[in-house]
């Protein structure tokens, strides 16, 4: 089974990948998922988010909103949604 096999009429995917990001294989599967209507990406790694966001945009995704959350006060780490 893969992401591309989603059969719901209006699918929502929420991803919280490791610091290294989603990876090209997952991005390709997301792009092939015809029923995907909303994709939420939660990231703790800014560099990986930027790399994945660029790849997702190249596959036709649109970035409509970006928020940062300070889940770790007193550190340099932020969560990006």
Give a quick rundown of the structure.
The protein is 27% helix and 19% strand. Helix 1 links the parallel strand 1 (11-15) and strand 2 (36-41).
- Report the total helices: 2
Mean pLDDT: 87
Number of strands: 4
The structure class reads alpha+beta
Taken as a percent bin, the fraction of beta residues is: 15-25%
Main beta sheet: strand number and arrangement? Answer: 2 strands, parallel
Helix content: 25-40%
Strand order of the largest sheet: 1-2
Radius of gyration: 13 Å
Shape verdict: elongated
Distance between the termini: 26 Å
Low-confidence stretches: none
The helix-strand sequence is EHEHEE
Commentary on this structure:
Helices cover about 25% and strands about 20% of the residues. By secondary structure, it is an alpha+beta fold. It has a two-stranded parallel sheet with strand order 1-2. Strands 3-4 form a two-stranded antiparallel sheet. Helix 1 links the parallel strand 1 (about 10-15) and strand 2 (about 35-40). It is elongated. The model has no long low-confidence stretch (mean pLDDT about 85).
Which helices and strands occur, and which strands form pairs?
Elements: E1 11-15, H1 24-32, E2 36-41, H2 46-58, E3 68-69, E4 79-80
Parallel strand pairs: 1-2
Antiparallel strand pairs: 3-4
């Amino acid at each position: 089974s893969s992401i591309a096999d989603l059969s719901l009429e209006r699918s929502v995917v929420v991803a919280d990948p490791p610091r290294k990001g989603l990876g090209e294989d997952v991005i390709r599967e997301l792009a092939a998922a015809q029923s995907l209507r909303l994709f939420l990406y939660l990231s703790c790694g800014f560099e990986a988010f930027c790399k994945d966001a660029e790849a997702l945009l190249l596959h036709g995704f649109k970035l409509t909103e970006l928020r940062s959350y300070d889940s770790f006060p007193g550190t340099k780490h932020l969560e990006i949604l």
